[in-house]
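Homework help board

Subject: predicted structure for assignment chain

Our instructor gave us this sequence and asked us to write out the predicted structure in token form, then describe one feature. I got the tokens but I'm not sure how to describe them. Can anyone check?
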Amino acid sequence: MSDNKRKEEKKKHRLNIDIPVDEAVEEIKEPHYEAPHTRDFDGASFDFSDVDVGTMEDVEAVMRKYDKESNTRLWEGTPKFIIDILMAAFSVYCIWSTLFSNWGVEKRLTFFMGCMLILGFITYPISKKHVKVNSLPWYDIVIMVVGAAAFFYYSITYDAFVLEVKSASSMTSMYSIIGLIGILAVVELCRRCVGVPILCVAGALVIYTFASGIPFDRFIYTIFYSVNGILSTPVNVCAKFIVVFVIFGAFLERTGIANFFIDLANCVAGSASGGPAKVAVIASALEGMASGSSVANTVGSGSVTIPMMKKTGYRAEFAGAVEAAASTGGQIMPPIMGAAAFLMAEFLGVTYAEVATRAILPAVLYFLGIFIAVHLEAKKSGLKGIPRSELPRVSSLLKDIYLLAPIVVLVVMVSTNAKTIQFSAAVSILVAIAVSFFKKETRLTPKKLLDALAGGARGSITVAVACAIAGIIAGCINVTGLGMKLIGAVVRLSGGIPLIGLVLTMLCCIVLGMGVPTTANYVIMATTCAPILERLGIDAVAAHFFVFYFGIVADITPPVALAAYAGSAIAKSNPMKTGIQATKLAIGAFIVPYIFALNPAMLFVNVTSVWEIIQICITSVIGMIGVAVSVNGFLYIKLHWYTRVAFLAAGLMLLYPGIVTDVIGLVIIVALVILLRGMRNHRRAAEA
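My token output:
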């Protein structure tokens, strides 16, 4: 095949760079389209045709291998339309339920889980080898109907159940069988759409439960019928808050806000040294505010930023890693935070606005660390930015500033406590619909409205199922008293030293968080690990943020690093090397949690004055710059190992709140910067 023919073949399969984030993820599942090779910026154009990036087939292959969510059934024509109607109807029900339903918790949540089982088995096949167009095997129908019926039966007969069954000891065989069927159906759906790792944790705890002498009837009663198992806090929060926010995200993405964020980032940083990588960091931070999904962010913005980075001169592994690390940061960026913020508020007994406020500085430091790293990499490699002629103009962006209205409305309503969180999300959905009518290409036609509602329901399946399994885990820990035993074991192992306890907890979080969705990830950590840190004297807020952060970095920490693998597929790089590089870039996520765990002032806990807040913010920013310089090994010139150690020590001192450590760290960094700048100038003069 000639070079021209090869280039033409690549053009047929190039990544689509203009589709919204959620549609990008859908295209992974059904890659049947041709995509453009240029990105248009207000009349200017950025050509990707000579950049070697992965095809959608490459992305699909990687994601099907590592990400269970990508293994879905293929529906076309009338069956697809009918299923979309079902999905949309469920989204409408969820919005109505959160706003107006006065059903009891058990009735509402069992009906919710019954619907989720139907939608889940319609969407996810038994394995990726059993995917045929418009096919739903008989055994899947049986599992779906029987499993959903178990939950619906409990929802309908709840009043009679309460009168008949006073406790686990009065459980009849029929109720035990119904409960077992419901549990097994949830477990099977979890295997299909979430994966095996979380089931291994749940399975080990179930075995431990029976080994501890807990009777079968008591186990079924706790896990299926009580509010301490499947129907516990995770599923309750999912049905009450998270689904509405997932639906909100689906509508928001269809307004074209993802492209707006990318254009805004290009306008701000595109022309700077190594601009495309900086664009990736800024765009992913902005998109994370809306979606909170690391894989969706990586595929959505990465389809634009990774080709731009490679064209500018960044190595393939570095390009994929930058996008993966930045997109993972979307999980910790307020206001959505992968929907875990709502669960955290429930666990801590505080308002959602308080959780989001405390998350701001750590999230900024995380993205700052990546931003500085890509800047230093660009300087070290002599990389240039994108010519201004190929970037959007400020005037064109100002015309689209209205796209931010849904997020602004949401943040204002939630932060002022004017209405409930779910009501605020519902209003924001209406604002997103109104915003879509400002442009013909984003206008929500009946078909697009149906797609948005269906997309919201579809995106909720894995979250709900993972929350249900997290409820099983929490139920087993509760019924056996394992939580206190784990706490005692770690406290003894750490010798009561908080730092050792933090390291042990970090390792547990990374292992338990591999391949687990954000929300379920946090539930597992909050149930098993956060109490350990609280026992060691760590502030409760700091303990929950600590376990949340280290659960999240599993998305970029090999061997199971879904965001990094998605980035590597687009960049055509080695997945493992991309994951390792992403881990280095996300150094902030490994350092900042230790800082606020040992001194929660970074989370604005026990901070009483505005001056103290300003001091913490400024010194933390400078400290993160010092850490990023140490990791990168370059500032004006290539650094010796002892200089990197000095930068790291100074950075850590500045990150740790305190007058003495701040002064020492600042003096060291200023001295090093002056010294290195002088050495660089001296070398230039000698070369001249």
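Reply (TA_rk): Your tokens look well-formed. For the description, you could write something like this. The two ends are 49 Å apart (CA to CA). That's the kind of observation they're looking for.
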